[in-house]
Specification:
alpha/beta; Alpha/beta knot; eight-stranded parallel β-sheet; six-stranded mixed β-sheet; elongated
């Protein structure tokens, strides 16, 4: 007979064994292939749980029984919501430690359905999904922390879609920690053919603008930038790939001191996206009737 538990007014199943079937299945979500097979991933900590809750994605919520008293009042309020009835599991320390990827876990892990805007797409599908939306592209950004940080910047500066070409998994634990829930706030589209995507963007009348300091690159803040540009941030060590550079409309360089060679990929993305965000702000602040 299944044992029940109630802590701080929250009701749920009680699981104490590390070998419990559900605990074993959740622990497998550390693996990216298993996440793709099941369509769910781990949101660890209060912030990511709250984001998953606000976007209606929780499948199961695992609480470390000994840590429930440390959760914030907002988290407890969300946990008491009727939408989570039957989805809450209290775990013993050994069972919780089997599923967490954190060194100092906060005591809550949400098994969430993939974000609604997360899709794998052909290049033409990616172009279609990006129509009329502010879009950027990451080309072979392999560090999960950089991917997550860039997604956070994209959400902060009003970009609606991020195209991912051969990048680190945005739903991996490291990327999620860095994104602070941005995976739920931007559309994520994975593609495998960057050159084809670039050509289709140009055919749609938009520009593919690559962050690259090579010959002919325009200096950020001096050259023209347009609201519908698709900005590309390249690999941490090698920059934008040749296939994507070949499909670019123009290149963009960030002005720096002579003694500085480059910026980290996530820092470069933040600088460029901030510059583009000023286009949006300037349009919003124009007097009525004034045209671009």
């Amino acid at each position: 007979m299944e044992e029940k538990a109630i802590c701080r007014g929250i009701a749920g199943r009680l699981v104490t064994s590390r070998s419990n079937r559900d605990v074993v299945a959740i622990s497998k979500l550390r693996d990216g292939k298993y996440r793709r097979q099941t369509g769910v991933f781990l949101c660890e900590g209060e912030k990511l749980f709250e984001e998953a809750f606000l976007f209606g994605r929780p499948k199961t919520v695992c609480l470390r029984r000994e840590s429930v008293d440390t959760l914030s009042e907002k988290t407890v309020r969300y946990l008491a919501d009727q939408s989570l009835a039957g989805k809450i599991v209290f775990l013993s320390d050994p069972a919780f430690e089997k599923i967490t990827t954190e060194r100092s876990p906060e005591g809550i892990i949400c098994v969430s359905a993939f974000p609604e805007g997360f899709v794998s797409s052909s290049p033409d599908g990616a172009v279609s999904l990006s129509a009329g939306k502010r879009t950027m592209m990451l080309d072979s950004v392999r560090d999960p922390g950089n991917v997550g940080t860039i997604l956070r910047s994209a959400a902060a500066f009003g970009f609606e879609n991020v195209i991912l070409l051969s990048c680190a998994d945005p739903l991996s634990p490291r990327a999620l920690r860095a994104s602070m829930g941005a995976v739920f706030r931007v559309g994520l589209v994975e593609i495998t053919d960057g050159a084809a995507f670039g050509r289709m963007i140009r055919d749609a009348g938009r520009r593919l603008v690559c962050a690259s300091p090579g010959d002919g690159a325009e200096t950020l803040g001096e050259g023209e930038i347009r609201p519908d540009d698709v900005v590309v941030i390249g690999n941490e060590g090698h920059g934008v790939s040749d296939e994507v550079l070949g499909a670019a409309s123009t290149y963009l360089r960030i002005p720096m001191t002579e003694t500085s060679e480059s910026l980290n990929a996530s820092a470069a993305a933040a600088v460029i996206l901030w510059e583009y965000s000023k286009l949006r702000d300037s349009r919003q602040n124009k007097p009525d009737g004034e045209k671009n």
